[in-house]
Fold this sequence. Notes:
Blueprint (H helix, E strand, L loop, with lengths): L1 E7 L5 H13 L4 H21 L4 E8 L1 E8 L19 H8 L2 E7 L2 E8 L7
Antiparallel strand pairs: 1-2, 2-3, 3-5, 4-5
Helix pairs in contact: 1-2, 2-3
Amino acid sequence: MHAMRLPFDHRTDSASLRHAAHGWLAARQAGELVEDTLLVITELVHNVVQHTGDGGEVTLSRNGDVLVEVFDSSRELPRLLGPDPRRLGGRGMLLVDAVSDDWGSRLTANGKVVWARLPVRPERS
């Protein structure tokens, strides 16, 4: 299994996170999967920055599918909110749900991890 760890905090430039992840992913994936994975990373990291007092860590791994895990110190688990045109924001997990095969969260000794699994599909000819 190949893995990459990207620690971040509130001062981390999200573009630098995406750039590092893009390099790792592009060497192992097709273009569409890279873009979907970057979207998942962006949304999950944004949630940590918006809802916690500190940063966290993104872990990318591939053992068949691509697994994105984002660790943080909060013990509040994410919720999938239905669309509401009156609410600003709150659609990040809908996006994660739409592009991933599966996602979830679990408590850890130091907070939680939110994960998403993205399938590796054969290239179209």
